[in-house]
Amino acid sequence: MIKDHLYEEKNNFVHHxxxxxxxxxxxxxxxxxxxxxxxxxxxxxxxxxxxxxxxxDDEMKVLFMAEHPQVLEYLYxxxxxxxxxxxxNKVYTRGLIEFTNYCRNNCYYCGIRRDNLHAERYRLGEExxxxxxxxxxxxxxxxxxxxxxxxxxxxxxSLGNVIRRIKTSHPxxxxxxxxxxxxxxxxxxxxxxxADRYLLRHETASEVHYALLHPDEMSFVRRRxxxxxxxxxxxxxxxxFMTGSPGQTTDTLQPDLRYLxxxxxxxxxxxxxxxxxxxxxxSQPAGSLHMTLxxxxxxxxxxxxxxxxxxxxxxTLHEKGREMGILAGANVIMPNLSPKSVREKYxxxxxxxxxxxxxxxxxxxxxxxxxxxxxxICYERGDSLMTEC
Length: 389
Ligand code: SAH
What we know:
The structure is a single chain. The chain has 389 residues and is α/β, with parallel strands linked by helices. The chain has a domain of 218 residues: Aldolase class I (TIM Barrel), CATH 3.20.20. The protein is 40% helix and 13% strand. The protein contains 14 helices and 11 strands. The protein has a 6-stranded parallel sheet with strand order 4-5-6-7-8-9. Strands 10-3-11 form a 3-stranded parallel sheet. Helix 5 links the parallel strand 5 and strand 6. It is globular. It starts with 5 loop residues before the first strand and ends in an 11-residue tail after the last strand. The chain binds S-adenosyl-L-homocysteine.
């Protein structure tokens, strides 16, 4: 039972591995050397974040460095309180349909990049995608996320037909797209066809860091332009980034959060970078669990009403990663609805979990794990409360 691994404090659960071990703390600096003063300021900045939803650049960096177990517990507890004030103890579910792993792009971190000649490519046809959604509907899902590499085999019209069909069969459902960069007219058209939401992580808000993660043919400016277009076209829009991607530092994370402040997205996708063996970043270290949890909590405090998924990457990094994400302020989970035969082929990173709680078919098991930490999975459409954006 998961509860055995948790300890309870004032009706709040914290997983013991949400707190760094002595060894992991402060990059080798012993906690004993941390001045009480530093810890005091971290508590103060967390309170400030709760009250004003923002802190200065320097204060933000001090918060990124927080590693004292009691400070982190305090941060997670505050994040849970804020999400509970807006979303109660509901965890929204989305059925994820990974409909193609063909991609015209060559992102250095991504396993389905164009130059990965060992990726076994697949694409689902209109019929198959709709069948996944039908199956998901029976399982109880009311949001379908269509995610894929940027695959030109789907035209504006053909993907539009898929969206229309899903919305016609299931008018009470939301359709979310996560399909990369297209032009304004295309985004607009898909929105007219019925797509409600769009996830497009900005990946990094530092231009120099962006150039480290992507080949020259990919444009930092265009990515941000697309996010702007998505908002203009009327989507509930999601941005976000990986934690611990090669080259990421507190100097790149700080602009990431400022960019989100400026964009005011309805959703934010934050998950650890995980290496994939056929990419140029094969031997780079994975992002850390603790940094990811810390960022989820900070985001919850900065954007109280944001939709914040506990990602598959977090579930891959740690067996209880998703539960820990929820306990750090996340409120969305996206189990996999793709046909079982293709799940393994959609390998953005190595060792992706595809069974158990990750599988839409095992949603009851996921529900019992969420129940064990005091949360209820919820089958509503789960729109963002940030409607004023
Ligand atoms: N092509 C689409 C969606 C698929 S990729 C797009 O560009 O948005 C979805 C997200 O997976 C990316 O935005 C990236 O942040 C994340 N991702 C890709 N490779 C990853 C890796 N190796 N580790 C963790 N996350 C990764």
